[in-house]
Amino acid sequence: MAEKTINRELANVINVRLNRQLLYYIDICTRCGLCKDACHQYVATGDVTYLPAYRAELIRRVYKKYFTRTGRFMPSLIEGREPDDRLLDELYRTTYACTGCRRCMYYCPFSIDTTWLLGVAKAMLLEAGRGSPILTELAGAAVMKGENIDLFKDVILESLKDTEKEVQQITGDASAQIPVEKTGAQAMYVALAGTHTILPVAVIFHHARLDWTLSLFEAANYGYFLGDNKLAKTIADRIVDEAKRLQVTQIILSECGHAYRVMKFLYEAWAKEKLPFEVKGIVEVMHELVESGKIKLKKDSIAEAVTYHDPCQVGRNAGFYEEPRSLVKAVSRDYREMTPNREKNWCCGGGGGVVAEPAMDEFRLKTGMKKVEQIRATGARIVVSPCENCRLQLDGLNEKYNLNIKISSLMDLVADNLVAQK
Amino acid sequence: MAGVMVYVAIAVFLAGTAYKIYHWIRAPRSSVRLGMFPRPENSFGRGLKLIKDSIVFPQVLDNDRIMWFFVIMLHIVGLGTFIGHMRMLGEFAPLYNWLGKDGMDTLSYIGGGSAGLILLVAVLYLLFRRFKAPYRDISVPEDYLLLLLILLIIMLGDHLRFFAHFDVTDYQAYMKSLITFNPAFPAAIAESGARWVLASHVFTASLLAIYFPFSKLVHFIGSFAANLVRSD
Ligand code: SF4
Ligand code: SF4
Asked: Which residue has the least CA distance to atom 2 on ligand 2?
């Protein structure tokens, strides 16, 4: 009896999150299975539980069992299911595995967004106390940093000193700075953990004479991967509050796909407010700087073959296809395109927080098979990709499959190939 | 019996579809824009993309050509068949004046006949596809049931087309009796052994119409709504 009540409460998680789009997705899937060839995880493993429609069906069947007439009277017709242990285990495995690439949505004849249904699945798992422990821990650490930023500040500033010296060396300008907490700066740059995402940008911005300041926080948002929107918002709040306090007119997010998605497409919906600043990604900013002549690139300076990997969150889910390409093409003599590319590009397998979960390592590298084939087919020696998660995955693939390639961020590519300005 | 069923079917189909649409628009829109890129610049482009995505299924063509072929066949020929049935309501004057009764009969025999066969093959393909992994593993009884029902309707229709030899005027008389709320088979049909085939065809088609709005077949309207979200 008690179990029945718990199951009903869990099923109700779907009901309270229902919106129009979700209803379409629940009602119209014909289980044609065409999304199977879209998902790198299904293609690499052949395991039907990773087939996008299969994952989505788990949620659909619970919803239909509890909230539709067919489900109540003839559950067997639609194979209605209760959110019992077995279902939750299956949901956990298949939901936290999904990289959120939305390639399945691209190939679905009805544009069904499987990730949107899996978002509901994550809410249900969290309600049942079954959220991913590692993502919970990482999200918690980010919140903790937000609450105690004064304790962290000195350490951060100290660590920036060395990076600042490097910037001065590279630019040959002893006055070059990494500004922090600069009120009224035009832009606030939000980097990632580690200075490797600060250095190249500081160099580029110095060349461009951009009035900027560095955020004390990192762009990554594990609350989003966890599927806890409240927590994700709290983590994003740190950046939003800082930007408001410093009265910047724009924030520029580092090469981090999901961080851009959170800020650009989700935050305002969560917060129910309009952000008083513009949200940009470093990819489009670098492109604008080149276009407007604020920075100049050394044309054709790379002799080795270069290819570009469209991160799902930069391409399909944000629309930057040509901007990054124009930068890569400008500096490379031998640019090669992967097939397929742009909106049809294969996910590398590293999105959705799977790189954070050590238990997923083997699966993750296995599901990068399609990407490995694509890279091999180009024969490129350098793979450029403007997303930290993609790069971590590409590094892993490089090692495991002996690809013998160099993986570069777009910021590094640009920073290393700047023409010194007078 | 099959007569009353038709009225029930039409009523349930219309009311059910209206309810489904109401059920959708009653729910709040997602506050997050779920579209993907490239995104058309303006609403004209969006409309165009919507029509292309919902009618030509370019993503399916890209992904699985054989499936695309049968799905297009099923939908286009299915629509054509539906339109073809309209001849029972009355002749389409311009075409009739041009071809004459015999010409029209030949046209509908060839057109309707090949449509019936194409539909048969397309539905059989979809049905057999479902018995194969991994499609089998994501299928639920509803999927088979719908396909079997549609298969039955097509087979009965084909039987009428190829073996029953009723004249179009007989069908028109039957249709007229339905419209005037006085359903009855005209003598030519009532006295034929094939009347059971027609009754079963009407009955199964009515069943499908009744189940339609409550099944995944609502994708016939839902796909337009959901494909619009693609470029939101
Ligand atoms: S392609 Fe779309 S409609 Fe077909 S099974 Fe996948 S999600 Fe369902
Ligand atoms: S979003 Fe990507 S990883 Fe997730 S189910 Fe779809 S294709 Fe697979």
From this structure: A101
Three-state SS for A407?
strand
Residue A103 near ligand 2, beta carbon < 6 Å: yes
- Listed in sequence order, the residues at least 6 apart from A286 whose beta carbon sits closer than 8 Å to its beta carbon are A204, A295, A327, A410, A411, A414
Q: Which domain holds residue B65?
A: 41-204+218-231
SS3 label, residue A281: strand
B160 Cα to chain A: minimum distance (Å): 30
Q: Are the C-beta atoms of B145 and A77 separated by less than 8 Å?
A: yes
Q: Which two tokens stand for residue A361?
A: 């390592």
- The CB of A92 under 6 Å from ligand 1? The reply is no
Handedness of CA B29, B30, B36, B39 (dihedral sign): positive
Which of residues 13 through 42 in chain A touch B, CB cutoff 8 A?
18-25, 27-34, 36-38, 42
Judge whether B212 lies within some domain: no
Query: In total, how many domains does chain B have?
Result: 1
Query: What residue type is A334 in one-letter code?
Result: D
- Decide if B32 is inside a domain: no
Tokens representing B230 are 């693609």
CA A91 to chain centre: 21
Residue among A227, A159, A239 nearest A191 (CA): A239
Structural domains of chain A in order of their starting residue, each with its CATH number: 2-131 (1.10.1060), 135-290 (no CATH), 296-416 (3.40.50)
CB atoms within 10 A of CB A240: 19
CATH of the domain at B68: 1.20.950.20
Token output for A369: 């098979």
Find the B53 Cα to ligand 2 centroid distance in Å: 20
Residue A114 CB less than 6 A away from ligand 2: yes
Q: Residue B57 region, left (φ>0) first, then alpha (ψ -120 to 50), else beta?
A: left
- Whether residues A20 and B27 touch (CB distance < 8 A) is answered with yes
Q: For ligand 1, atom 6, which residue shows the shortest CA distance?
A: A35
| B1 inside domain | no
Query: How far apart, in whole angstroms, are the C-alpha atoms of residue B70 and residue B44?
Result: 30
C-alpha distances out from residue B227 to A193, A417, B11, B34, Å: 38, 42, 28, 11
Q: What is the ipTM of this complex?
A: 0.94
| Residue B213 maps to a domain | no
pTM of the model: 0.95
Tokens 């089998």 belong to residue: B136
Q: Give burial (CB, 10 Å; 0-12/13-18/19+) of A184.
A: exposed
State how far the Cα of A113 lies from the Cα of A104, in Å rounded to an integer. 7
For chain A, 422 residues long, give each residue's pLDDT as a single digit of tens: 578 888 999 999 999 999 999 999 999 999 999 999 999 999 999 999 999 999 999 999 999 999 998 888 888 988 999 999 999 999 999 999 999 999 999 999 999 999 999 999 999 999 999 999 999 999 999 999 999 999 999 999 999 999 999 999 999 999 999 999 999 999 999 999 989 999 999 999 999 999 999 999 999 999 999 999 999 999 999 999 999 999 999 999 999 999 999 999 999 999 999 999 999 999 999 999 999 999 999 999 999 999 999 999 999 999 999 999 999 999 999 999 999 999 999 999 999 999 999 999 999 999 999 999 999 999 999 999 999 999 999 999 999 999 999 999 999 999 999 998 75
